[in-house]
Amino acid sequence: MKNRCFWVTDSKLYQEYHDSEWGEPVYDDAVLFEFLLLETFQAGLNWLTILNKRENFRKAFDNFDYQKIANYSDKKQQELLQNEGIIRNRLKIQSAITNAQLFMEIQKEFGSFSNFIWRFVDGKPIVNCFHQRNEVPATTEISDAISKTLKKRGFKFVGSTVMYAFMQAVGMVNDHTSSCFKFHHSCL
Fold first, then answer.
1. Which CATH superfamily is domain 25-174 in?
2. Above 90 in pLDDT, residue 122?
């Protein structure tokens, strides 16, 4: 049996996510937007809840196509509010649209969202050396800075805790604990 990070449950879906996605560096804007959308919907909820609904979100939100989402009509918002397969929260649905619009503004300004977001960590993952769950932070100065910057630009549901979870998900920070089979570096 593989030794995984403390937060991974017996759920096959959770294990697959941990083993193949979590902490792996993502530079593709489409995937970055997918995680941004999912993390904002996760705010206040359990990540496994979101993972279990991920394919429903994919269908409901046009395969996470931010260009389409940015132009969602009131009718489409109403459809989403009726969709039992996703988190039916009016503010989070509206934030997905707003965030998609702002995501594209950042792309115009920086060439890509990836260029913008990865500059917070100088373009390479921060590799941590945590041994126990109580060492893994919920926020850092960097997630505070990202949150503050995005909020100033008008993004919603991007508090520091959400942004740190985003950083972990897209590999901007590698928080696999030392007992995890995905931990591949030495602690100095």
1. Hypothetical protein; domain 2 (1.10.340.30)
2. yes
